[in-house]
Structure formats: structure tokens, C-alpha cells
């Protein structure tokens, strides 16, 4: 996967939720572009099945390690950042991709469900980013950049979506935190952007297996196909690379034109 042009050579990248779906594609592409990838996830097993991400990367000649982490547990987050520093001595890129999902409307969403979504999708991002930025501040500038953060938000953070009150609201928070970090730490050499996927076919099942939902997604997407994890991974690669030279605080829509229509 990827062109292998070395756009991320000598970079250490943490990718949360890297065992499956979009995170899996990001890990593979980053590794193909020369990054040392740290996969942070609850399990090394891919939800959609197949060989674990770490093994796929190794078989392709790349470098990756797996660290077990639950982003709803603050001790796990601290352990992840600490282990990466101990093993590699630096962190160049953080991709906040991991998220949990509850597909219910307001009146059917329980307080526990709401809290769990926010614990992982928002507080976990806040705590891990805080730990990583603290370390990055100690690192030297490379061509004016000390560290790059790529948050995976969602089109659901920009528009209303059926039965997605908790998830959509959490992703709106990610759009905001991206802007805040970008502006607060620009002078310190940080680049922080987000990628907002539309409907991506990950192979994880769930609503993907329900014809009524796939028909709805296709009818709302101007391009004549739904997205793939590789579509999102390529956008994340651009924002994580030195090619994104004067872009920060942006929320890049990767939705086939959904939000434009």
C-alpha cells in the first residue's frame, strides 16, 4: 500500500485504533512511507478479519509495534506515551483515530452510553494529545515543525446525521479541539489538522450490512461510490507529511462531496 517515496522517513508515529478499518490503512500507508508506527488499540486483531496490522507491516518490510490501550482509561494513555518515549526517544506524529460509537437518537441514548462515547472520543484524545505535546515541546524543530497531529473527526461533526447524537457531538468536539491546539501552539512549531471521513466502507459490519443504510449513503454521496479506508489514509498522510507546509487548524472533508451537496 502506498508509493513508498519515504515521505515519513525517520518519523515515529502513534496511530490509535490502528488494528482495524481506517486506522489499519493509516498504519500501513505510514509504514510504507518510512515511518516507525506504534499501533495503539485494545486488541491486535482486526475487526474485519485478516492478518494483524503489525504483521502486515512487517511482511511488507516496514516497522511497527503494538501497544494495548483503552482510551477510556487514563492510566492506559499515560502508559502508551511512556512506552513510545522509552522505546523510540521521540514522537513526531500523533494520529487520534480510535473512536467508539453508539447509533441512537437523543431519547434512546443512556447517560452511560453518552459518557463512554465522550470518554474515548473526546477525553481520550485530550489526554493523549496533552501527553504527546508535552514531549514534543522538548524536541528540536525540523524545518520549523516540532510535531504533527492529525485528528480523525467525521462529517457527522459538521452536519446532522440520523440517530447519532453522542457520536456526532463528540466529533464536533474534535473539530474544535483541532482548531484550538493549532492556534495555541502554532508558535511552538506544532501543526494540527483533522480529516473528516464521510461514509467509508471498512468491512466492520454493523450498518454496512443493512441495505437501507447503504442505499441512503449512496443516495447522499455525489461521487458514484462510497469511500475506502485508503481514501482517508492518503489524506492523513498528506497532513502528517512535510508537504502540508502552511495548513493548520483545518478539517479536511473526505466524503465524496456529501457535505457540499
Task: Summarize the structure in short.
The chain has one domain (12-260): Rossmann fold (3-Layer(aba) Sandwich). The protein contains 7 helices and 7 strands.
Describe the 3D structure.
- By secondary structure, this protein is α/β, with parallel strands linked by helices.
- The protein has a single domain (12-260), classed as Rossmann fold, CATH 3.40.50.720.
- It is 39% helix and 15% strand.
- The protein contains seven helices and seven strands.
- It has helices at 21-32, 53-59, 74-88, 111-136, 165-184, 211-220, 229-240, and strands spanning 12-16, 36-41, 63-68, 93-96, 147-152, 190-197, 251-254.
- A seven-stranded parallel β-sheet has the order 3-2-1-4-5-6-7, sandwiched between helices.
- Helix 1 links the parallel strand 1 and strand 2.
- Helix 1 crosses helix 7 (229-240), helix 3 (74-88) runs parallel beside helix 4 (111-136) and helix 4 (111-136) runs parallel beside helix 5 (165-184).
- The longest helix has 26 residues, at 111-136.
- It starts with 11 loop residues before the first strand and ends in a 7-residue tail after the last strand.
- The mean pLDDT is 93.
Tell me the layout of helices and strands.
Layout: E1 12-16, H1 21-32, E2 36-41, H2 53-59, E3 63-68, H3 74-88, E4 93-96, H4 111-136, E5 147-152, H5 165-184, E6 190-197, H6 211-220, H7 229-240, E7 251-254
Parallel strand pairs: 1-2, 1-4, 2-3, 4-5, 5-6, 6-7
Helix pairs in contact: 1-7, 3-4, 4-5
